[in-house]
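Trying the structure run again after the queue cleared.
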Amino acid sequence: MAIPLLEYKPSSQNQRVSGYEIPNEDTPKIYCIEDYAKGGEIEELIWAAYRQLFSEQVILKFYRQSNLESQVKNKAITVRDLIRGLAKSEAFQSLVIQTNSNYRLVELGLKRLLGRSPYSKDEEIAWSIKIATDGWDGFVDALLDSEEYQSCFGENIVPYQRRRYKDRPFNLVTPRYADYWRDKLEDSRYKPGSISDFFKMAASVNIRTVTYMLVNTANIQIPDTTRETKPEGIPLSINPSGSFPIR
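Done. Tokens:
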């Protein structure tokens, strides 16, 4: 029996209040498939979906989902289906899910899929239980099928940060993995300025003893570099006006 989602109270966050800001360069761009008539133009929308889900400016060809891209270009699936497929892809599994805890995945899921931060710790706990019982795929379906997603993005709009926190986009303040994962990777490296790491490095160096060899100069053959012939011809100056002694 599946555990129902725990109840939590939405806080008064800025994305729940209508904005009165003047549009500027920090205003999120809305990518709607209805604004792209041709398949080549949809590439811009597809890359916007990659940036929103993976928080990366460059996606390797190995991680691209060619089947999903082809279907959305042919209008066989909606943008919501594209987002659902990217969130459940093996690439997202290896890059994001495997390197984060459930609480971190809740934060990333709400930011990437709903375009907002968690309301409170209670919401993080409620959704983390959802991930623990139904898995990541069930969590993605719950968010994409929610009334909040439908009212904000519908079927044809790529999710975006609805109201930016301190004018900063999520991908600049929320990397793919948290600090504890970066610290774990850093523990396996030498840290600059660490005395203990320096001692370990010095102890690992294999020092070889220099062996001196006696050399008898009588056995050394010095080649004869003297010229056998003398240069012929009359030396001339390169500069005709210059004085050049002629002998």
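The first helix runs from residue 42 to 54. Worth checking whether this holds up in the mutant runs.
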